[in-house]
Write a structure and sequence with these properties.
The protein is mainly beta. Helix content is about 15%, strand content about 35%. The protein has a four-stranded antiparallel beta sheet, with no helix packed on it. Strand 18 and strand 19 form a beta hairpin. The radius of gyration is 24 Å and the shape is globular.
Length: about 375
Amino acid sequence: MSLRSFVLVRTISARQKALPSPFWRGHRGLLRLLGIVGLLVAAFGAQACYQQQTGMIVGRPLASHETHLHTVVFSSRPGVVYLGTHFGLFTSHDSGQTWPQRQGSLNAMMITAVAVSPTNPDLLAVLSVPNGGSGGKQGIWVSADGGSHWHCTLPARLPGSAYPYAIQSASGSGGHFYVFFPFAGWFETRDLGSHWSSLTDSLTSTMQTSTLLIDPTNPAHLLMGGEAGLFETASDGKTWQQLTQVQGSIIALVGMRGSSGPATTVFCATDRGLYRGVVRAGQLAWSALSPPPAVPPTRLTISADGSALYALFGSNLWFSADQGTTWVQRGHFARSDLVALSLDPVHPHNLLAGFFWPGLVLLSTDQGGSWHTLTD
C-alpha cells in the first residue's frame, strides 16, 4: 500500500468515527462506498508501485530506491555475475559491466541467495520469498540451463515454520545442493531438487544460525556450525560428532584444497576467535590464529588454492596471503549493511561487495585495495 492510499483509508476511518450518529445512519451507504473506493485506490496503488519497481531502468538493476539487494555472486563461468534483488534475479555476462534485462528473472519474488555448481555453471539454484507481486512463491528455484528455465522444489514434510534461508553448492553433474531451513535443519539434493534427504539429527537441526562446509576432496565429509558449536560428519550426515577443540558460536566456515596431496585446510570464525584446521590422516588438527583486530571476523572468503584469504572485522577488510598467519588491512567500508562478499573463482584478486539498501555493488580488482561502483 502506498503512503497516499494508506492516509486516505485512515482519513475515511477517522472521519467516520467523528461524525454525529444521525449523519452516520443517514449516509452509511455512501461512507461504505467511500471506504471501498479507498481500499481499491490502495490496491491499485500497491500494484502500480510494484509495476513501477519491476519496470527497471535497463542497465541499472538497482536504480530504483525501493530495490533491496540480497546477494551478489560470481558464477563459476568466467564473466557471469548474479544479483539477487527484491524484484528477482539479474544476470551480467561481462563481469557486471552491462545488465541487459529489463526485468529480473522470477521478478515476483525476492531472491535471497544464489548458488552455482562449481563444476557445471549451467546448474543454478536460488532461494525465493514472495515480494507482493502476483505469482510469487516461496521455495527453491532450480535451473539446468543457466537460468533460462526454472522450476520450484521443496523437501517434503517441512514444518510450517521452516523457510529456505541458506544454500550451498557442491561438485557433480547432477545438481548437488544443500539448503538450510531454520526449525528444520539442512537438506541435500543430488538431482537438482527431484529428491531430498535430511542431513541433520535432533541436535544439529535445532540450530537457527547454521553454516555448512563441504570437503572439496570428499563430499561425504561435512562440517556444520552454529550457536551450538562445530560438528563433523564423515558419512554425509548419517552421524555427527561435536568438535570441542573449537570454542564458541560458529560465525563462518571456509576451506581450501591442499596444494600437495588430499589435505584440506579449514578456517572457522567464532564469537571467541579465529581457528585454522588442517586435515591430516583423516583428522582435523586445530590451532587458534591471532589476527590483528581484537574482534572476531563476521565474514570469511578464500580462494580455492588458499593464496587469498579475506576476513571482515567490523567494517574493515583484511587480507592474508599465507593462510591466516599474517594479515594486511586492505580497506574500510563506510556502510554497515554488507550482505555479500563474493570472491571471483577465476581471478582471486577480484572481489564483489554488496550492500542491502539502497542496493549497491562495489568491485575491487586489487585484493580490496580500491573499489568502484559496479551497479547502483
